[in-house]
Amino acid sequence: MDLPPALARFLTAVEARDPETAGACFADGAPYANVPHPPVVGPSGVRDLLAPILERSEHVRWEIVTAAVDTRRCFLERVDRFVIDGREYAVACTAVVELDPAADRITAFRDYVDLGEWRARLAGALS
Question: Which residues lie closer than 8 Å to 81 by C-beta, 6 or more apart?
Answer without folding.
Answer: 59, 60, 61, 62, 63, 88, 89, 90
